[in-house]
Amino acid sequence: MIAAQPEDRMPPMTAPRGRTGRPPLTEERKAEIRLEIARAAVDLFVAQGVTATTGEQIGQAVGVSARTVWRYFPSKESCVRPLFSEGIEVIAACLRDWPPGQPLGQLFDRTLASGLNVVGGPDRGTVGALVRLTRTEPGLRAVWLQTYDEAEPAFARALAERAGLPAEDLRPTIHAAMFNAALRAAVEHYAWRGADASTDRATAEAELEATLRSALAVAAEGVI
Q1: Which residues, 6 or more positions from 9, have their beta carbon under 8 angstroms from its beta carbon?
Q2: Is residue 68 a part of any domain in this protein?
């Protein structure tokens, strides 16, 4: 008779394999959460200032924990970054599709008419108030400038593609720097001198769009 195999030598029992708990978030949903956090942070920063705003408050406004906020952003100031950077690819696509000989303003107008949000985020008056905070909040200023620093290579690639030039060519790099500086100057000009959060939304949007159009027209002078 064959003796029974000792228990400690029996093959281990394994639980059925399978995923438990919540399904992973899609990249699209992650992007939505980042934008929700960004909008909540903007509203709180404008209403009560950056110093008085906590990660817990930002999370509560969105319906998530502070831990979730920090999972997406390293600091409360960086929460606004999606609103600063949302328009980079829109502008890059605008430059890439810009036909030779056509005023850039016409292409820019079509981009706006299609419903694309160039600056991004909440209403333009609130965006203006947020940009004004970058004057007195070093953390926000750093995020603001970093966004434009990262935009410049995207603009250079778009202009190089438009002109059929290699990406490392100096000319599109210089032109990209011009456009980048013009856009930042336009938004800051709008923020310093233009509408605030109490301004009618339609008026604020018209003022910002006119400022951006003027800045791009100036930067486009001399670009073939």
Answers
A1: none
A2: yes
User: What's residue 201's pLDDT?
Assistant: 63
Check: CB of residue 48 under 8 Å from CB of residue 129: no
- 60 token code pair: 């509560």
Buried/exposed 49-68: b ≥16 CB within 10 Å, e otherwise? ebeebebebbbebbebeeeb
CATH number at residue 176: 1.10.357.10
Is pTM beyond 0.85 here?
no
Whole-angstrom Cα Rg for the chain = 24
- Which H or E element spans position 34? helix 27-48
Mean per-residue pLDDT, 122-134: 76
Determine the structural domain holding residue 66 and report its residue range.
27-77
Same domain, 150 and 56: no
pLDDT in tens, 21-78: 567 878 888 989 999 999 999 999 999 999 999 999 999 999 999 999 999 999 999 9
What are the residues whose beta carbons fall under 8 Å from the beta carbon of 192, sequence distance 6 or more?
132, 135
